[in-house]
Automatic annotation (TrEMBL):
Organism: Roseateles asaccharophilus
Signal peptide residue numbers: 1-27
GO biological process, one term: proteolysis
Domain Peptidase M16 N-terminal: 58-198, 529-645
Residue ranges annotated for the Peptidase M16 C-terminal domain, each copy included: 216-391, 674-851
Name the record gives this protein: Zinc protease
Amino acid sequence: MNAPTPRRLVALLALAGALSASLPAIAAPEVQQGAVSTANGQLAIRQEKFTLPNGFEVILVQDHRLPLVAFNLWVHAGPRDEAKGQTGFAHLFEHLVFAGSRHIPRGEFDKYIDAAGGTDANGSTNFDRTNYFFTLPSNQLEKGLWLKADMLGWMIDEVDSVSLANQQDVVRNERRQSVENQPYGIVEEALYQALYPEGHPYRAVVIGSHADIQSIKLADVKAFARTYYRPNNATLVLAGDFDAKEAKALVQKYFGTMKPGPKPPEVKVATPQITKERRLVVKDRIELQRVNIAWHTPAMFAAGDAELDIAAHVLGGGKASRLYGLLVRDKQVAQSVSVSQGSQSLSSVFNIEVVARPGASLDDIEALVDAEIAKLAATPPTAAEIAQARAVIETELLQRMEKVATLADLVNHYNQMAGDPGFVGKDLARYAALTPPGVSGAVAQWLKKDARVVAQALPGEQVLAAEVPTPPMPTKAAKGERESLNGHEAWRLKPPAAAVPKPLTLPAAQSFTLANGLTVIHSPKAGLPLVSASLVVRAGQGANPADKPGLASFVAAMLPEGTTTRSAQQIAETAAALGATLTASPGAEEARVQFSGRKASAREGLALLADVALNPAFAAPEVERVRAQMLAALAQVREEPAALAQAVGNRVTYGEGHPLAVHALGTEAGLKAVDASALRAFWQAHYRPDNAALVVAGDLTEAELRALVEPLFGAWQGQGAAPARQPLPPARPIAARTVLVDKPGAPQTALAVVAPGPFAGAPDTAALKVMNAALGGLFTSRINTQLREVKGYSYGVFSGFSMGRERGQFAVQGSVRTDVTGPALADLWKEINGMRAKPMGAAELNRVRNAQLLSLPGLFDTNGAVVAGYAGNWSSGQPLSTITELPGKYAAVTSAAALKAAQQHLLPQQLIVVAVGDKAKVQPQLQKLGRKPELRDAEGLTVK
């Protein structure tokens, strides 16, 4: 398992603006265990809604497919409810909710989630709401309600000047990481400021400005809580394996005594009118230019919203779309195209985003886009285009229902935005009713040239607002800072005990082998009519010849770009018509060709997968197009500080000449050296049935799978004798060092602290994972707690071990504020040395061990997760039983075993620090630590 990403991510757009779809009859058997019904061809979600006397809404969605319960709390407040001069307030408040409560001390909330085996624990803010969610094993129903109730009713009791200052630092670090130090981050902010006038609640990005975040006072926080964080302004969805009668009684127990607040003020804001095109140019630290063209469009579920949703798919909804075909495939002036109808409650935004290829003109791209919009406005889309859009959206909706976590959020979304938690049928009916002329008419009405904003992003120096100093962190709160909205109830101080757990089982898999040597791994999963599959081939980066780094990635990229019987456009159209996704991706040791879609499309989807993997054309025009895309993608790596830090770390760790030293995309010289014959030779040598496995999970029996697989893959034969397998050379033994890559003006330093690590199958793997969970793998880990929660240096810093068949790496990754790069590294070293110094105490061991053990069912709760697990398992050479044996191995980990793993695998003398940041500010800090940094460029080469 990889280290988790920082938890409280900002969601700028609504959850399901693009969820709606038409619903042709869904031919799938109804599964009574699940909450999703397909009776009579109508998609529906079984749910029950009730309201407590204090106004608290509760929606129960019983789904007994897995022993899990999702707890999804929506507070009906977001930036739309912020006061003037307080941008980012709702999002800052989201952070404060996790800081502690009257009955749960600061820092303990997430620890309870870990110890209970929680997954999907997070919160997010969009313009219209703030949500808080986690999923627990079903025997922890009462504990989940205890936690959620204290978050809503008693968090304000513990908010003081210390906790407020800490979270202001964290949120400002998040802004630096996700907006200012992220390619195009400031461009999106400028776009919204041009779309909306001063005073409109959607004008600022959700995260707000440094000045506004820092200006928020404790009194503001209390006032916001009194108005919005009350039971009559919140809705809880429980989705999963529980008894409704028991759940109702527990909801009343934990939420019933909360006092309702005043009715929040109604937000009435007119949609702003743009009557003359607004144009802006934004300079950013980017390699590739980008253009955004955006319009105000009808609010969510209003007339025209569905038509523009379909129009977005027709124009830029994937590789089969018009603009992708025109700009990326035909004219080859764009690196990527995306189009969306971002639906919100007050006003939606239709956004066309095109990243240009090097040397392409944004003006020329804009002219091509304009012509395509005019064409769609004048001539209705074809029936096939609308059918493709509907199929894609319907599949995406079904996939959201696969996890109880996303199912719960979908129900909450419909409840707030449509006033009906069972709105899914009506939502889909909008799409069944629309017509091609209706789509064309909506485009003509709303996407006019004089009613839009055009933002061009060009390479250059950023222009940011004046620096807002970070005040010293207060060490102690003043008397009288805290207050309560609800009375203290002493019984809440004691966490409720868990009920008797259900047996912990993981999805098992069986395998069989075709006569040609292809391994087929199958994990059946009845429920929703969905199937996922991955053809895994041991043909990754490690197989690249020395003179052609990037060849494996090039071959994988070419697979969906044409076969002997289908063009790239035909492949894309076939996948879209199925409502399926088809992707090919390279890895360090393997490549994967993946399909995901409805059971009804499994036959055609697997046939398409087989065609692209077994019959690639490697046509010369497509080779040149993909080469240009990969060269541009290499430039994009240089834009992204975190990716750049990891790439440079690999180069230093493995050393020149090692296949894993350069980026998986290769080098400019290497890519230019590849031709069609080299691509075909690599494919013939490595894409063989005896060097591959097909992994399938979902609503297919073994008999059904065999009937599909044998005709499609049975005749596959390798080209000649299998090549002699060359093992990867080891990472070279190295001494600790510090590498600095200059990124002038960067507001944060991206860090990658890396070293060689153990391979898959290491006997102490379970102990290693438990140890790492305590060190840096969990949100509550020592590293993240110290650097984020205690010091406020970072939005999040995490560690993890990646373990392959012949490679292994330990890495700590995250970004810290530029001016505290040195202190952050000093703290990091203290935590690593502390992990090696003495065994964990019983409480910490039990928490982090349970976080690995009890969370396992929640980590294998979708077809895609099961496929990924078994595909990685096969690629790394492990037996099928490795996954189902995980519970026993985790349960057996002791503190002594974890300490031994730390002492054997956390070796400070091997750790390489890569810092990507402002040299003028960072280098003196590194030197103060006694580390004279090596200077390297964005390619990872030494600067002389």
